[in-house]
Design a protein that fits this description.
- The chain is an alpha+beta fold.
- It contains 14 helices and 18 strands.
- α2 runs antiparallel to α3 and α9 packs antiparallel against α10.
Length: 540
């Protein structure tokens, strides 16, 4: 019998409604499982791995050894990305999506650890040692001293660093947790961090790598670079960005001048052909840093700084930031690698370019350890360092396209979304309660794959102790004393680590399981983004 059309439509509608009811129930169940997995994983990390609210990067399951960028004492936590600040920010993300106070309280523990480790001036070192200065000095004199390729750890300065975004990231985390509930207890350490960043800025707008200034580590005859004007790891940009965030959310006009000075510094040291290096000495000359970072122009930094200058034009409407970008593009074309050196197109440019000849500079090393090994440069591209490859691939066409697009804008068009132009706040609530309400898009984290298959695999991936176990992480040789081998061998020319006295990190290729803080953060972020997507679509 043929059903009437109206009956067919009713049956289809009933079937469709039933289908969506089942789908919604499945989604609700999966989202609940995701929340449960988040809670169980976090409770394990907080109860079993945390040291006074903070974390390093990797742990053996029995906690007999642990590592940040280098091996850490049990009393240490790591500030750098992948450690305590990364966990703190992720916990606030979890709190935002779940409204579960447990995550906010855990984030407060991370913030308390950061405040404990804040220097009296207001900044941070790479790590915090709750055993105090005597313990930290011992670490530097043993483990740190023998990290051959990690020269930044071979000397104890006793000050704070901007390297690897350490101080700027920590300050940004304090800003964020303060804005979350405007809890007054976070205002003094936040103010101290802000004042540290303002005080450490040079009058011309640049920033050093470390502050207060020190000049007491002349490695292998090289001058101490820690006071130099530093672009490496985006020191200047990260500080400018943090001050812009402060201006957006705290609304204090005092931030404008250091912001503008920081942007103008890029033009002060730009080379005659539009190029940049990583560091500049007090005479504004391009300079070296670690012994495997020669005084050189750097194509990757030149491209990156050009993109920032395009952004600075959009902040200010001042076309001076565009003036020498065509020169930089021409220089980047000039210093491209010949096809015979690109490894079939894998690379486009050398890492370092001689500032006098515009020819590539390649870095090599000889020896076995931090005590007797050394680095040197020449023009040959064989036996290159594994820990700092002498070649890079950069997207020059992207810079050309961005320059064509943005330079075509009038100053009035360019600044229409500038955070520095006076304007009425047009969001909901207040800027103080909308930390991520930024016209910069710098606070957006790339969303990892959050498919249901991926979510299920993460939920099922927790072991019986609620851990995500991983293999092949970066570990190190245990400290056994200073290097003794004086042989200038090339055996370790292309390896991450030298002989058994070298405490530098290397990847463990065995089947040993580890607990990884970065993997925990990344997996949690996938689950968080899944819950965000569920809320956005209205499925509960």
């Amino acid at each position: 019998m043929i059903m009437p059309a109206s009956s067919s439509l009713k049956a289809i509608a009933l079937f469709t409604a039933l289908y969506w009811d089942i789908a919604l129930a499945q989604n609700e169940s999966l989202s609940q499982q995701a929340e449960q997995a988040m809670y169980k994983a976090t409770k394990y990390m907080e109860d079993s791995m945390s040291t006074s609210g903070g974390f390093v990067w990797y742990y053996l399951p029995d906690r007999s050894r642990r590592w940040g960028e280098m091996e850490a004492y049990k009393t240490m936590i790591w500030v750098q990305d992948g450690g305590t600040v990364s966990v703190g920010n992720m916990l606030l993300d979890a709190y935002d999506v779940t409204d579960n106070e447990y995550y906010y309280q855990a984030a407060e523990k991370a913030a308390a650890a950061m405040i404990w480790g804040q220097s009296s001036e207001g900044g941070w070192n790479y790590m915090i040692d709750f055993a105090g200065d005597r313990s930290l000095r011992k670490w530097y004199a043993t483990i740190g001293k023998n990290g051959w390729r990690l020269e930044e750890f071979q000397h104890y300065y006793g000050n704070s660093t901007y390297d690897d975004d350490v101080t700027s990231d920590a300050a940004r985390f304090l800003l964020r947790i303060y804005l979350k509930k405007l809890d007054a207890k976070y205002k003094p350490p936040l103010d101290k961090a802000i004042n540290f960043i303002l005080k450490s800025q040079y009058p011309n707008g640049g920033w050093p790598q470390r502050f207060p200034l020190q000049h007491d580590f002349n490695k292998a005859g090289h001058p101490d670079y820690s006071s130099f004007y530093t672009f490496n790891d985006d020191v200047i940009w990260e500080n400018v960005l943090f001050l812009i965030h402060c201006y957006e959310t705290l609304g204090e006009q005092r931030f404008l001048e250091p912001i503008l000075k920081g942007m103008n510094f890029y033009l002060l040291v730009q080379g005659k052909n539009g190029e940049w290096g990583q560091q500049y000495n007090m005479k504004m000359q391009v300079s070296g840093a670690r012994t495997y970072e020669p005084a050189a122009y750097v194509p990757s930094y030149t491209l990156n700084n050009c993109l920032l200058c395009l952004r600075f034009y959009q902040y200010t409407g001042d076309r001076k930031f565009l003036k020498h970008i065509p020169d930089a593009i021409n220089w980047l074309e000039k210093v491209k690698l010949p096809s015979s050196m690109t490894l079939d197109g894998r690379y486009t440019h050398p890492l370092f370019v001689n500032p006098r000849t515009d020819k590539p500079m390649y870095v090599h090393r000889k020896g076995s350890n931090a005590i007797y090994g050394y680095y040197y440069t020449d023009t040959t591209d064989t036996k290159l360092l594994s820990h700092m490859m002498g070649k890079r691939s950069i997207n020059l066409q992207y810079l050309k396209d961005e320059y064509a697009k943005i330079s075509a804008l009038s100053p009035e068009e360019a600044v229409k979304d500038s955070p520095l132009i006076p304007g009425k706040f047009d969001g909901s609530g207040t800027p103080q309660s909308n930390y991520y309400l930024s016209r910069l898009n710098d606070t957006d984290i790339p969303i990892p794959d959050a498919t249901e298959t991926r979510i299920k695999s993460l939920i099922d991936g927790l072991d019986k102790e609620n851990r995500w176990m991983v293999k092949h992480v970066m570990i190190s040789n245990p400290y056994i004393g200073d290097g003794q081998n004086k042989e200038l061998t090339e055996e370790y020319a292309t390896t991450n680590v030298g002989d058994k006295t070298d405490t530098s990190p290397y990847r463990d290729l065995s089947e040993q399981d580890y607990i990884s803080t970065p993997v925990y953060v990344r997996n949690m972020q996938v689950l968080i983004n899944y819950l965000k997507s569920i809320k956005k679509t209205g499925v509960k």
